[in-house]
Structure formats: C-alpha cells, structure tokens
Design goal:
Elements lengths: L5 H6 L5 H10 L4 H15 L3 H11 L6 E2 L4 E2 L4 E3 L4 E3 L4 E2 L4 E3 L8 E3 L4 E2 L4 E4 L3 E4 L4 E2 L4 E4 L2 E4 L4 E2 L4 E4 L1 E2 L13 E2 L3 E3 L4 E2 L4 E2 L4 E2 L4 E2 L4 E2 L7 E4 L4 E5 L1
Parallel strand pairs: 1-4, 2-5, 3-6, 4-7, 5-8, 6-9, 7-10, 8-11, 9-12, 10-13, 11-14, 12-15, 13-18, 14-19, 15-20, 18-21, 19-22, 20-23, 22-24
Antiparallel strand pairs: 16-17, 24-25
Helix pairs in contact: 3-4
Length: 241
C-alpha cells in the first residue's frame, strides 16, 4: 500500500502552495471550498467560551459531510478533509481534538449518535475509514488510526491514552529503512461493549469480541474472544466475564 507522506505532498513540484495546502487539509482544491474552510476556522476554531461553542455549532456543519443535532465542538478542534466526516446527534468532540479523514479514495470518518471524544484525542485516516458506533466513549489523549478500516462498536469505553492502530509497516528488507518500505493494513474491529483500559494498545489485524475487557497498558497483538478478560504485554486471556 502506498500512502503519501505529508512532507512529500507539501514539497511536491509543479503545484502552488495554495493547491498543496488545499489538497492536504481541505481535501478539495477549488477556491470556494478553501475560502469557506478558512473563514469557518478563522471565525470559530479558537474562539473561547460560550461564544466559541455557539460559533462552532453554527459554522462547523458547513464543512462536514453531514452533522446531526446538538453536536458540541470544543475549542481548537481541527478538521481535515471535513467533507468526509459524518456525525450523528448529540456527539461531543472536546478541546484540541484532530479529526482527520484524509485520503484519496476512502469514505472517511463516521461517528454515530451519542459518542464522546475526549480532549487531545486524534482520529486519523491515511486513506482508511473509521467508524465509531452509537454511545461509544473515547477518553482523552487517545488515538484511533486507520489505513484501511477500523470499527469501534456501540457502547465501547476507551480509557485515556489508549491506542487503536489500524496499520503497520513492512520491515522485511534490512537494507532499507522501515520508512521506505511498504505500509500494510488489515484493519481493527472492536465489538460492542468492550472496555479498553488506560494506556492499552490494540495493534493492526486484531478483532476484539463484544463485552471483552482489555487491561490497562496491555498490548493486544492477537484476537480476543467475546467476554474475555485480557491483560499484559503481549495480552493474554486470564478469565471470562
């Protein structure tokens, strides 16, 4: 899988700075989309207090693919390729989050109703898709990354500093740096009602069954069955709920 690096896109020759910025951040290169994005961000992104909340509630939906009712955007929320971001009703995206649906052929990010995204959390696509089902709670300083497909089930609880990483690097050729080798992604699927403890990491290719519990700081490299309790590095099942 070839996934262009941001620095390569920004340094590519034959395109203006405006075109590079629009392609990387806005996701559309027409001047109208760029101006709309810049106007919304300038007026509302960093505005503090109740005024900022009101401005973002009114203006951010102008950039999104779709946006439900009663959605709250915190201060300094960053949107990239926002036309591929779809939000249900009663979604809360707290301060300083990055919602990045970047990609050339992906569907982007879909967040269902009642989801909470804690502050400083990153949802990042590299031509992949992220789906977060209804009622999930993603704690602060988490990351969900997708280079193919990542699904977080309904009612999932991701505690602070937990990572779901739907992508990896091929490192089979020792004569080349890992950065120069192919990127791979099998995706991640997390079932409904799962609890992922603080600081846990769920790696690419893993499926976690519904109502499972992943202990704090665990590193999950293999599938975890429904209702299992898995802890440790690497994670091992120690009991069943």
């Amino acid at each position: 899988m070839t996934i262009p690096r941001a620095q390569d896109q920004l340094s590519a020759k034959g395109r203006s700075a405006r075109q590079k910025y629009a392609a990387l951040v806005v996701g559309k290169e027409d001047i109208g989309s760029l101006l709309r994005y810049e106007l919304v961000v300038t007026l509302s992104q960093s505005c503090p207090g109740a005024l900022g909340l009101a401005l973002r509630k009114a203006l951010f939906p102008l950039l999104l693919g779709s946006c439900g009712r009663n959605v709250v955007f915190g201060q300094n929320v960053v949107l990239r390729h926002p036309h591929k971001v779809h939000l249900g009703d009663d979604v809360v995206i707290d301060d300083n989050c990055l919602i990045d649906a970047k990609g050339e052929s992906n569907a982007g990010i879909r967040i269902a109703s009642g989801v909470f995204i804690g502050r400083n959390t990153i949802l990042s696509c590299k031509n992949g898709d992220i789906e977060i089902a209804a009622g999930a709670n993603v704690g602060f300083n988490c990351e969900i990354f997708s280079a193919s497909r990542v699904r977080i089930g309904a009612g999932v609880l991701m505690a602070a500093y937990s990572y779901v990483i739907g992508g990896d690097h091929d490192f089979s050729d020792p004569s080349r740096s890992v950065l120069d080798q192919t990127r791979v992604s099998a995706g991640v699927a997390i079932g409904d009602g799962v609890w992922i403890g603080a600081g846990a990491k769920v790696l690419d290719g893993v499926t976690i069954g519904r109502d499972a519990v992943i202990g704090a700081a665990a590193v999950v490299r293999e599938d975890v069955a429904a209702r299992a309790v898995a802890v440790g590095i690497p994670a091992r099942v120690i009991s069943t709920r």
